[in-house]
Design goal:
With 138 residues, this protein is mainly alpha-helical. It is 64% helix and 0% strand. The structure holds zinc ion.
Length: 138
């Protein structure tokens, strides 16, 4: 099983390839949200958030405690490492926290981001996580 540094190096090495492929497919203004989503997925929403003492969990610094329940809900390399359900669990989990904080703070509802930006961001979030799971399985 590759370690954290190997995962991160492989994921970051593939970022230019993904952006280049996106450019080749005709993406232009979508490249920035794609790249930002990719970095967020690689650095902050790694499948290894199922380990409380993992590097991705420690990157959350003060907010790392938010992920403690996630580590209790999902055992290491279980559902959290499923190619599609894993990222979905983390997005839903984080969304529930954000919704709770948003509601408790009484903040007004805003407009959702336009799909033209949200979809490339979500695709960017997903790609490094797929690579992570692939490397874990090799
Ligand atoms: Zn892993």
């Amino acid at each position: 099983m590759p370690g954290h540094k190997t995962h991160l190096a492989a994921e970051l090495a593939c970022l230019p390839l993904c952006l280049g492929a996106g450019y080749g497919l005709g993406l232009r203004e979508e490249l920035l949200p794609l790249g930002l989503g990719y970095l967020a997925g690689s650095l902050f929403l790694s499948p290894d958030l199922d380990l409380y003492h993992s590097r991705p969990a420690r990157r959350w610094r003060l907010f790392r405690a938010l992920w403690w329940p996630y580590t209790r809900l999902f055992r290491h390399r279980g559902l959290s490492h499923h190619p599609l359900l894993g990222p979905l669990t983390r997005l839903l989990y984080l969304s529930l926290w954000a919704l709770g904080v948003w509601t408790l703070a009484g903040l007004p509802r805003g407009e959702p981001p336009p799909a033209a930006l949200a979809l490339p961001f979500l695709a960017g979030l997903l790609l490094p996580q797929l690579l992570h799971v692939l490397l874990d399985r090799l």
